[in-house]
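dumping the sequnces here before i forget
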Amino acid sequence: MSKKTDFLVGLFVLLGAVALMFMALRAGNLSSFSFEPTYTVSAKFDNVGALKARAAVKSNGVVVGRVKNIQFDNREFKAVVELSIETRYQFPLDSSASIMTAGLLGEQYIGLTPGAEESSLVNGSEIMFTQGAVVLEELISKFLFSSAEKEGSSGNGQ
Amino acid sequence: MIFNSISALGAFIINVISGLGVFSKFTWELFCKSGIALRRPRLVIDQVHFIGNHSLLIIAVSGLFVGFVLGLQGYNTLSMYGSEEALGLLVALSLVRELGPVVTALLFAGRAGTSITAEIGLMKAGEQLAAIDVMGISPLRRILAPRLWGGVIAMPVLGAIFSAVGIIGGWVVGVLMINVDAGSFWAQMQNGVDVFSDVGNGLIKSVVFGFAVMLIALFEGWYAKPTPEGVSRATTRTVVRSSLAVLGLDFLLTAVMF
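..and the predicted 3d for all of it:
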């Protein structure tokens, strides 16, 4: 009787573990966690927008790494983003990083555009050429200001 | 007249506060006597079998149907905005974060909590607890602690099974019956569900609910009036109080976690 109970309880707990594994691997993103060796490079941005840690780092649309962390540099007043890039991907030293948005309202990621330098980025090096996030509100206000200016100047001309 | 109502209000508040005190003391004593769960795991295994295995069927069937309904309703709403592909994400997130732990805990209170309360209450009414006490064995240690830990182990397992079966139910309705694209169903789900912040927090919720339901069930049974009517009232109170506790705790946990 107690042997049977043991077996049934073991089966029950096993079933729960299988359910958890299913949720972690099939429904969750555990399978996208890569255990590849990585190297860390940093990049300074004027504005990171809504970029979050663990956001994707993509080159030509392929995920090559993840955002490790985001900090604020109080001397240069810039956002410092650390990227961990998988070791099997090597990028030229003069590659440029820009913060892009997936779709119009999608989540933000970092796009790496390879440069032409012979030597590659190594652990601890910094990406010099960066372009911050495009903030939709700024774009709209620019557009509104410019159209208001145009109207004003055409009004003066008449 | 006014004095009566004011003193009734005061008595009510005093009762609530002293009830809370008794409950906290009971919880503390139970924790102090929980060492037996490690020394004699067989007692706990028997309780996991009684509480967990016997609740498996109702949990799995409920999970399946909740998944079906989420699939249908989610599809109806999402198709208005032309984003049926997000169906997988909607089903998985609502199950893993909220419905899995909460509905499992409510069913758990109804299925396992009541039976524990009735069992303890009847043991008390039959003076079995007193007999055990006379024999020099602490009933808190021998009877109540294994039930608490059995429930606390069984609850997260049941919650995980509920969520997983519910996701499969959503898949059956969404992909097999309505023909949402299977690839984007899973891909959107995998993009949106985070292992630690969603699945992990859901698991933490289940553990907390397991503690709450089992403690309330044991408390009500332990302090039940040893009469048939007292046991029946205690059983009712178990369902009412543990359901309310689960819903209230869920609000608190959600506010802290997400």
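The CA atoms of residues 122 and 231 of chain B lie 7 Å apart.
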